[in-house]
Amino acid sequence: MRSLVTSLIMEILSTVTLNDVQEKSIILRSRFTLTDHNCYDSVAKYFSAHCFSIAKNPYVMQKLYLFVNLCERGWSSESMIEVMANTCHQSPGGTYSGIY
């Protein structure tokens, strides 16, 4: 399950950043302080409801800093949610749909 979570988040990160290697590196290596609560709350709630349930998958919590970093680097919640809407329903074995 961890590999699925990591793979999905990396796919979201790559798509949102348009696969910008430098931007991805900053996001992966940093731990920004959360100031854009609206962005983060929207993204985290959408991810939990439509991708992987945070309540059912404690491992997801270890990766949420990436959404904080995306928000703090100026990526909009709308762009992240759009990517999730197009990504989270796809999987080799069917659907993520927040059921995991």
Characterization of the model:
61% of the residues lie in helices and 0% in strands. It contains 6 helices and no strands. The protein is globular, with a radius of gyration of 12 Å. Residues 91-95 have low confidence and may be disordered.
Give the N-to-C terminal Cα separation. 9 Å
Rg, Å, rounded = 12 Å
Largest sheet composition? none
List the quaternary state of the chains. single chain
- Point out poorly predicted stretches: 91-95
Structural class: mainly alpha
Helix count, DSSP H or I runs of 4 or more residues:
6
SSE order: HHHHHH
Strand content: under 5%
The total beta strand count reads 0
List its traits.
mainly alpha; 100 residues; 6 helices
Give me a quick take on this structure:
With 100 residues, the protein is mainly alpha-helical. The protein has helices spanning 2-16, 21-29, 37-50, 58-61, 65-72, 77-87.
Q: What's the helix and strand layout?
A:
Elements: H1 2-16, H2 21-29, H3 37-50, H4 58-61, H5 65-72, H6 77-87
Helix pairs in contact: 1-6, 3-6
